[in-house]
Fold Glycine dehydrogenase (decarboxylating).
Amino acid sequence: MVTFADRHIGPTDAAQHTMLSALGLDISGADDALSPVETLMRQAVPASIYTGPSSDAGSATSRIPAAASETEALAELRDLASRNTVNRPMIGLGYYGTITPQVIQRNVLENPSWYTAYTPYQPEISQGRLEALINFQTMVAELTGLTTANASMLDESTAVVEGMLLARRASKSTSTVFAVDADALPQTKAMLATRAEALGIELVFVDFAAGEELPAELFGVFVQYPGASGRLWDPTAVFDAAHLAGGLAVAAADLLALTLIASPGSLGADVAVGTTQRFGVPMGFGGPHAGYMAVRAGLERQLPGRLVGVSVDADGKPAYRLSLQTREQHIRREKATSNICTAQVLLAVMASMYAVYHGPDGLREIATQTAAKAALLRDWLTEAGVDIVHAQFFDTLQVRVPGRAAEYAAQAHDGYGILLHVADADTVGIAVDETTTLGELHQVTRVFGGKNERAFGNFGAEKLRALPVDLLRQDEYLTHPVFHSHRSETAMMRYLKSLADRDYALDRGMIPLGSCTMKLNAATEMAAITWPEFAGIHPFAPASDVQGYLELIEQLEGWLAEVTGYDAVSLQPNAGSQGELAGLLAIRGYHHANGDQHRTVCLIPSSAHGTNAASAVLAGMKVVVVATDELGNVDLDDLRAKIALHADSLSALMITYPSTHGVYEEQVVEITAAVHDAGGQVYVDGANLNALLGYARFGDLGGDVSHLNLHKTFAIPHGGGGPGIGPVAAKSHLAPFLPSHPLAQRAEHFGGFTFDGGVISAAPYGSAGILPISWAYVRMMGADGLRRATAAAVLSANYIAERLSAHFPVLYTGENDRVAHECILDLRPLKEATGITVDDVAKRLIDYGFHAPTMSFPVAGTLMVEPTESEDLDEIERFIEAMILIKAEADAVAAGRWPADDNPLVRAPHTAVSLIAGEWDHAYTREEAAYPVPALVAGKYWPPVRRIDQAYGDRNLMCACPPVEAFA
């Protein structure tokens, strides 16, 4: 019977035999009674950490049950979903009911052309999602009244923290004080406290709206606009006072409210942050959602995260790309100012398309109806004699009920299935959104003693009496034609299709990006995320409403603990970078609890990803770099020297395993023991876990804590550059210091652990709405399937390395000449011999119908190739053929067949227009340009633009929708 693992793993048994034979392994299986693939894994994985096949998989001694079929897994998910109750949330606090237009749900969220794409490192084949992100940036910048917005943040609370950090580095003040609105969201206050403590920032909470004065010295202020209580007031005087003190003003603003009220920029804010969740993105028990950040002119180069800009291609035509080298611009290692290296692209696309579909008039009408319903609710409650706390608000109001807040909230929940917010013992918060009905408003008023029966009439803009007249918005926004051109579903569907067709995603072919693990995101894994029982749940719903979610979360925590060898897991971090930070903060908390506040040094190999050093800096640690040897391994002599030098102050070592160079380091146990002997902790970066599952465990090789990338190893799709989830797993001694949350439904986690490590993400369980994907992956693969997947990934990488080694040197291998799940091809000799660069090869691969491997990381002038387990042998052979032919083309340049400045590589990629327009006067033919292999004739992918001029875009920064005339 064909299993899910058989569908997930690309190379068949016959194909694997072919590949093993090419590696010189006996496919008869007679080698020490091991199968050939097990022999390969024995050669690759060091014996000191190797784990043999588990005989417990699916048994009572394993927490991971035997693999389920797709039908069985969906049935179990249905059962878990049925244990969630989809009540009507009127809690607010940054999460609202919203209507996802079906044309966006079907054509973006459920469309593999959008959700299987990767971060647009190759902009020529990412023009569709880059345009969608330009729309997002334009939407945010214009609604906030600021000059430049980035391509999204992880969530609102994280965006506020990043606003604080931006203010600190951009302010001329030397103060360490940051003044925070007392009416800020509770989850934001908690996260600010967590992050500020590690960086020595002093938070001072001020009731700005009540007129409390600012501290005498500060580097910035933060205002919630409107407040968490719903209160709406003019913060201009606060912003002015901050500027007089030499600080910057940060505002968290509700984008829907900004269609009716004055923008933060017009009131004097330097930075605006927030969330775009209510722009058509389901609540999903907390995420994923696209946060946002916008800044005034002059702060563009301070922006964290990704920034999309407009440049020109080789023909001078407008083309989109990541600006200011944003792939790593903010990851300056030990000089880092942020550790966020990605975004929430898929969700930002959804939010931007919500604005495109509705346009400014539609958004204004949604906001008007929302505000009118809130005002009507106020009228009905006042009629019932209820005391309203604030007179002016947009969509949220508070009622004063001395000593009875919990009682009224319980009546609303039990009687009508309506969730209200208990602000304190005397106060109930009620939030209205675009999905709220008049009947629900009537039910709320009945809870507070209103009329039992009521005739519902029409209401409209005249009900905007709760908005301050002097704060009503006067200026226009979303004036670009893109926000006025796609009103019908037909037009919107075609627009989304046109953008998707410009991009290269996994639905077209292999994306062999090293360190990124672009594996199959199976349809069955994705099926449950749009079910209302998962998508329609507020993150602060009561525990009784989310029993299915809590069970799914605990099961997944247990499964991840088992496969990693750790004791406890927190699923809260909503990106790998945040998982790193959470792990390092856990180490920091552990040392402090032991009275070792002086342990602040974090050792990091020079080959590590930039987020490692950035996370260490943000955790209040001092980074000390450890050298790597000529094989790409940690230099043990240098490590021992650095440990000896910093023995008293050593906090942690961060290593990636297998290494960033794609090999299993033989001496990893010796490395971790040396750190432990010196009193330090070991952080193992889980980015490359796809090379270990079933064969080794971080906890067994000496790891104390790790983050895991669910968007890599555990099949959550990358979504064009987000969402991601980076759970943090730890040994029991670090468990108490893992992320916690003041609004979590329960304190206990898998294993009976309780965490108290502070807040890392806005929601208690992070991006819980996509956890069903990884749950389904593990459930359908089972322990044996996960092990098979690891072996297939390692086999495919070694096969590519073997086949291409005669054409491109493989830079690093292990002791038995084996690589792990990826290999680094050294293109520096090619450049020396032919003049052809790694950029030329990457762009020429587009002509062959491929996304290029990871370029120049971790070594400049190289390509890091990771095929994953999902690609079948035919696709792997197609890639190998392309690389061999490109090498031959480069040799032809060196031999003089083609000039160095006029050949298919330096002019790649080739658009259809570039091949047919005008006379062809190049040294190579049109056919050589377009169809280097005959198979392309039947299904050619045509890039929409030619090679993009990156430097031009940085010199002429434009990060909003260009005028239509630019494309004439």
